[in-house]
Fold this sequence. Notes:
Elements: E1 2-5, H1 6-9, H2 13-26, E2 31-34, H3 38-50, E3 52-56, E4 59-64, E5 67-72, E6 75-85, H4 90-107, E7 111-123
Parallel strand pairs: 6-7
Antiparallel strand pairs: 1-3, 2-6, 3-4, 4-5, 5-6
Helix pairs in contact: 2-4
Amino acid sequence: MTDRPVTEVATGRTGRLRDGAAATVQAAPGVVRLQPTLRNAIRRIRSAADGRLPAIGDIVHTASEGITLAERGDVIDVQVEITARSDRSADVTALDVQDRLRTYVLSERLTPGVIRVAVLDLED
């Protein structure tokens, strides 16, 4: 495992992609908010503690509230955890978010990899 400085990666392409993906998710119908998880909190604490982002080979991981992004060259994997509206099917919302994320990654002239959407909670 190798590390890359947070300032080098998080403020560069990876950080920009993560922020764009987060905005894409939050704009989707049926999404109440990105849902922070303990795993992402621990990842952020580790990164802040040593000033580096975890990387395995060429895979760079970055985590924010409810979103994890991994870069494998030009292939982008995205995992999001959301709270969805209870008046819309959680499956429909998750599929819509997945399609929007795929479109967003393609708009950045990158290749969508694995895109996972988990609905962790429902709200009225």
